[in-house]
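Budget justification aside, the reviewers requested a transparent look at the raw inputs and outputs of the sequence design task funded under Objective 1. We therefore reproduce one unedited record. The lines immediately below are the structure tokens for a 142-residue chain.
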């Protein structure tokens, strides 16, 4: 698979899950902390939360792109929302793995049409493409 990047984001972390994260070229510095469920303080952000936000935004972008390319797909309403839940835990094969659940809200869009749009979005979204075959992803149209 060949990808020709038109943009490359840069970020860094120090101290691991209980350190600092920074987005290069900005003043944004995030306090990182493991969640309480994993023995941490929970007084900061964790990689799963950041992944969830990124996946949500990217997935909306994929739906909008799909609708712009295919006039048979419904228009994405301005009040579209995607809630993404990212789970982390031990894998049977060892190490840790992720699960992802996307809850898509497309107010005013027929449910069958919304489901068709979400299926197409999965083939476009870089997050969906990067985890396909490695992370269990479920999608629910609210």
């Amino acid at each position: 698979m060949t990808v020709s990047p038109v943009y490359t984001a840069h970020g860094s972390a120090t101290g691991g899950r209980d350190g600092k994260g920074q987005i290069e070229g900005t003043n944004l510095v995030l306090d990182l902390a493991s969640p309480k469920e994993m023995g941490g303080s929970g007084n900061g952000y964790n990689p799963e939360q950041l992944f969830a936000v990124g996946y949500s935004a990217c997935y909306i972008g994929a739906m909008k792109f799909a609708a712009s390319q295919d006039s048979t797909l419904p228009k994405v309403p301005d009040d579209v929302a995607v809630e993404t839940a990212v789970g982390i835990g031990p894998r049977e094969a060892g190490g840790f793995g992720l699960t992802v659940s996307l809850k898509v809200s497309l107010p005013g869009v027929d449910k069958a049409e919304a489901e068709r749009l979400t299926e197409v979005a999965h083939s476009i979204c870089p997050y969906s493409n990067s985890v396909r075959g490695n992370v269990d992803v479920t999608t629910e149209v609210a």
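The chain has a mean pLDDT of 97. The CA atoms of residues 82 and 104 lie 5 Å apart. Computational costs for records of this kind are itemized in the attached budget.
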